[in-house]
Please model this.
Amino acid sequence: MVVEESYINRDYLIDYQQYYSRCFEDYPKACKRIHFFNTEFARERLVDLLLRPEKTIKDELQKYYLGFIVIKPIPTRIIGYTLLENPLTNAENSINFWGTKNYRIHFFGVELKIHSLAFQEQDKVVAACATTAIWISLNKAADKGRVIVKSPSEITIDAAQSSPDGSRLFPNKGLSIQQICNGFLKSGMVSEVKKADLPFKIGDKQINVVTHQYFKKILFAYAPIGIPILIVIENPDSNGILHAVAAFGYQEDTSIVLQDIPFKVASDRIIRVICHDDQWGPYTDIDFSVNNKFGLTNEWTRLTPGRDSYIRSLVVPLYSKIRISYEDVEVLIKGVNAILRYFFRLNSIPDIPEWSIQVVLSEKYKQDIRSSKLSDEEKIKILTSYLPKYLWIAKCYLTGYQILEFSFDATNVANGNFCLNISCFETGLMHLLKETLQNNVETFTEFFHVQTGQAFYEYLLHSLEVEVE
Model:
C-alpha cells in the first residue's frame, strides 16, 4: 500500500461544504488516498521509480496496480471514492460486465489506468443507499451524452427538498422511487420504473415482488446501453426499510436448456448478478433462490440462513432519446411468437422459438449485421440505411440457429408502428411462413391485443410480401 497523506477529493469537498464545514467539530477537508499493488517494494524503491522517465515507471507500476480507496476524515462510514481492479475478471465462467469503464488515475505525476466502476459508501449524513447507487450509475452514464456526475450531497438535494417522511433532508434517511428518478433527471437522464409483477404474502403482510424472469429480462434487455440499473430490495430483518444497489454485470450459463414454456427468452440463462452494494462493498453478488421464483440470496441473507431477499422494484436510468420500452416491444414479439408456434405445429417442427430482445446503438447493430449470415444484398440494404441512434433488436432462434430478426426504432412513439425492418435467415422457412400467414390472417390478427398490434401486423404482412384478399 502507498498512502497519499493529503488528497483533495471532489465529491467529499462538495459534501464537506454542504454539511461538515458547518459542524462545531473541526472536520478536515482533505482525505487520505490508499493505492494498492500486488507486489512488494520499499519506500526507497518507490522514490527510485518516481525519478525515472515516465515511460519506464508507467509500464512497471501499471503491471502491479490494483486501484485505490479514498478515506474520508469523518467518524464512521469513511470509505469514499474507490476504484479497485475487478476481482472477478478471471472467473471460470465469463461474466458480462456491461457497466464498467476505463478510468485514468494520477499517481504522483504518473498516469495509470484501471477498468472498473467507481464505488463509495453512504455516510448516512448527506447520502443514504439510494443516493450512492445513483452516484455509481451516473459514473458510467457520464461517458456518453450530456450527463453530469454530481457529488452525493448534490444528488440528494436534486432528488428532493425533504426526506420521504417529510423530515429534513440532512442527515439523509433515504429516497423514495420518485426522488430517485428526480435525482437522475437533474443530472440529464430519464428513468423507467419497473414495478413488481407478482403479489406475495410474508406472514400477515401482502407485498408485490419482482420475479426472477422479469428481473432477468430487464437486465438482459438494457445491458447493451451500459448504464448500471438500480435494484430496490427488501432484505431480511429490515423492518420494511428498502435498500438500493447498482447492478452492472451478470453471468450466463449457456449450457442451460430452457424449458418449453410458451415464451422462451435467452435471459433465463442468467444465473448470477454483480452489483455495488454500498453497505458490503464493490463487486458483491446476487444469486437466485432455488426455493421459489422471486427470492434472492445475497450478503444480507447469508447472515440469516433460510430467509430470502426480495426485489420490490427496478429503476432503469436511460438517455432521453430511448423512448420505447422493453414492454412495448415484448408485447408485439409475443404476437409473432404465437404465430410461429402455430406455424411450427402445423409443419411438425418439434421446437419452440427462443427470443433475445435488447436495446442497442445503431452502429453496433450494423457491426453485427456485417458479420451475420444474411445475404450480401440484405446486408448492404441495412448497412446503407438511415437509422436512429438507438434500436430495439429482437432475434428469434430455433435449435440454436437464428431464423428471424426484427429491428425497432427505440426513439419513436409507442402508439404507432415503430418496426423498421424484418430480416429472415432461412429463405425456405420464410416461403412456408408466407403461405401460412396468407391462409390465417383473421386468426393471427387476434394474437396482437394492443393498439399498435394491428399496425405492426400489417407491416409484418407487407414486409414478407404476403398478399391479403
In short: Residues 326-346 form the longest helix (21 residues). Residues 326-463 form one domain.
